[in-house]
Amino acid sequence: MAAALSRALKLPGKKGSELGEYDPLTQADSEDESEEDDLVLNYPRNGLGRGNCMGTGTSELRGSRKGRLVGDEEEAEEDDDEWRERLPGKKRQEREEKGMQYWSQRETNRDEGVEDGGGLGASGGPGLGVSASADPDGKKAKVRGAIRAAFFLVPLVCAMLVVLLCAFLVPCQHGELDKRPQWEKELGDHVGGVTPPPLALWDVDNDSVEDVLIGVTQKSNNTHLSRSVGNNKEYSVVALSAFSGEVLWRRVLRDPVESIQCGLQYEAHPSPLPAGGAALRALPNSAIPLSAQRDRASGPVCLLIESAHLTAVNGTTGKKLWSVAPGEIQSQAVSLPDLQGDSVPDLLIATLPADQVSDLSLLLLSGLTGALLGDPVTFNLTTFNVSGKLIGPLFHETQLGAYYILFGLGTVEAVSLGDIYTRATGKTPISPGLRLKDPGWEKLRKTNSSLIHISSGTEQVEFLVPLVAGLCNNHNSLDSISNLNSSRSDWVLVCGKLSSKLSVLREKDAHTEWTLTSSAIHSRPAPGQFNDDGIPDLLIQKSGAPRMRKVQVVDGASGRSLWETEFICPRLDLEGTSIMTSGQSAFLFWAGDPVRPPKNLTKTTVAPGGVQTMPVIRKLYMLHPAYPTILLELASTTDTILTAAVSYQEPQKDASYITVSSRPTSGLGPGSRVVKSTSLRAAITAGQIVRLGESSTAGVPVRPGVFEINKFFRRLTFKNH
Predict the structure, then answer these.
(1) CA atoms of 284 and 23, how far apart (whole Å)
(2) How far apart are CA 358 and CA 355, in angstroms?
(3) Residues 6+ positions from 112 with CB-CB distance below 8 Å
(4) Which residues in 120-140 are b (16+ Cβ under 10 Å) and which e?
(5) How far out from the chain centre does Cα 373 lie?
(6) What is the DSSP string of 460-487?
(7) How far apart (Å, rounded) are the C-alpha atoms in residues 648 and 330?
(8) Cβ distance 343 to 322 under 8 Å?
(9) Residues near 588 by Cβ (< 8 Å), separated by ≥ 6?
């Protein structure tokens, strides 16, 4: 085949010296002859004659070329036949097949080339260019492609526009949980002075936010009730919604409520109570009706403690579950481990003994029915202190798992819960925790005494507080988790009135860890995390210079001062609060304006009568350890704040600050009781920065800027533990 192709290319011109064939690279003809040679060379490659695809030319040249090419083709066929006969057997046959495939493929390509690219040019002559008139099938394909692209892109663009519209232009419809609950509720004119009313926080409507329960004393408009009670006062407990302050329920009582506690759980009861006579046989000492027994699991249980009555109500509806009259109640209820095996925590309260000889009685009550568990257990405490403030009772679990009750009159004593159970019921305790005794505590017991003396010294004990940071240090809660955290902690002891001693007792052996002597401490210390050592620190408020109040943060591990500042006295004794943030606590307290000492003096001085002329404005401050040289003023008021608490909001990572205040009214009548709820995150946004002196804390960093401070506080989130 190669020989045939070489012969097909023979043209007049210069011959090669060895091959005797035409060499187009050395051809020295004219420009026309070179063009003709090039056209001849394209012939075998394209399979087309000049008349087919090579533009216009002279007829003679085309004719001479045609005649000469026909002759050459005949010679090429003869030589090709000879070349094929020389090929041996199978190899020759394979080459013939490949040759046929080669030529058939060239024929196919030639036909397609003629269809697509050949034909007449714009002037009607033959040529290789594409026709000026567009292919109708190509146009249709382009139109179909454009339509398909449009069908794909248009919905995509519309979807993107909808997303952008929802994200940036249309405001999202937030539910009630996204609103910052801030409200104020007047409960009417209060009768009975400015004593702090009982206050408790618990989620009674199952919306994941703690609602407000408060005791109210008002003038009675009910003539029948006034005659039955013997005065013109009406006592009640009101449950308010955490979001709006709306009254959820109100329960009228015969006597003023002295304490409200929530968190007693009945859901753990193993089986429903039997009906009819079977229920009476199962619970012969039960004081609750059967309808109330079946209603107990429909919501949280709250205890309303009056002077001589203890009533359990359904926290959602306010309906009474049971009520007992154990005597003159002197304390809050203490949640205990299950003593009867009914899977419901039992209770302990302190009462005045009926024999008028002993100082105090401890009573065990069934948490399920309110029935007395045995007899009151009396104690004579005059050996240690003739008169003093009632301390406790509080439940404590040692590291070994032994149960003790802490209580006293101006002192702190401890008694084994197992001993109380045995003396009350005459039975041996079933629970291992009741039978267990801790050797570290038992060695403090004196001979022939059932009491273990904890506090030392002659000063009266004013406060006994578990050293636990966060909202779990809620002394009005009966929640098992809160009680578990506080019962296993160390204890903070405050002794003395005119001058105070602040100390921490180790829970493992009741020994004193450290003691700090200071001026009189006016309220319960507030534990919280100020430094990063993992041990809660203490916010205390104590007397300073005349008409001054000093606020101090004390290291819980060593008793050294971490932060302190002096303020104008706000003329109220209200305990501070701590709220857990990311790793540290934010401290809240009420005070007047901070006192800034002059630069040329080392001690604060106040002009005589200078403070008396100032209006009594109480301000709520927030202190965060990240910026100890600044305070954030969250609120200010001229009302007298009676009590306050913090309600944590799980969905928003926020907290509400609940206050109950006495607001003066016109005339000489009693003041009005006002309950107010403030979102802390909203208050932070509107808060004012108050800069303190450099002496408030050691190791003060560079003076922070306003933008940096605002950015930090507005990003705070609050945790429940």
Answers:
(1) 129
(2) 7
(3) none
(4) eeeeeebbeeeeeeeeeeeee
(5) 41
(6) PEEEEEE---STT--TTB--HHHHHHHH
(7) 29
(8) no
(9) 576, 577, 578, 579, 620, 621, 622, 623, 634, 646, 657
Q: Which residues are CB-neighbours of 280 under 8 A, at least 6 positions away? A: 286
Q: Report residue 123 as tokens.
A: 């002037």
SS3 content of the chain, % helix, strand, coil (to 5): 25, 30, 45
Distance of alpha carbon 702 from its chain centroid, rounded?
Answer: 31
Q: 521 Cβ partners below 8 Å, 6+ apart?
A: 462, 463, 494, 500, 502, 540, 541, 542
Is 584 within 8 Å of 530 (Cβ atoms)? Answer: yes
Evaluate whether 494 touches 502 at the Cβ level (below 8 Å): yes
Q: Taking CA 361 as the corner, what is the angle to CA 357 and CA 367, rounded to the nearest 5 degrees?
A: 160
Q: What is the DSSP letter of 358?
A: S
In angstroms, the CA 293 to CA 288 distance is 7
Are the beta carbons of 652 and 632 closer than 8 angstroms? no
Helices 31-46, 59-86: inter-axial angle, 10-degree rounding: 40
Determine phi and psi for 12, rounding to 5 degrees.
Answer: -65, 135
pTM of the model: 0.71
State the chain's maximal CA–CA distance in angstroms.
Answer: 152
What distance in Å separates the CA atoms of residue 694 and residue 596, rounded to the nearest whole number? 10
Burial (0-12, 13-18, 19+ Cβ within 10 Å), 654 = buried
**268-324 tens-digit pLDDT:** 444 333 333 333 333 444 444 444 454 555 678 999 999 999 999 999 999 999 999
Tens digit of each residue's pLDDT (9 = 90 or more) over 395-448 = 999 988 899 999 998 889 999 999 999 999 999 888 888 899 999 899 888 777
Q: Do residues 557 and 533 touch, judged by C-beta distance below 8 A?
A: yes
Chain position carrying tokens 């995509």: 156
| Residue whose tokens read 């540290």 | 584
| Cβ within 8 Å of residue 455, ≥6 positions away | 408, 411, 412, 461, 493, 495
Residues 6+ apart with CB under 8 A from 609: none
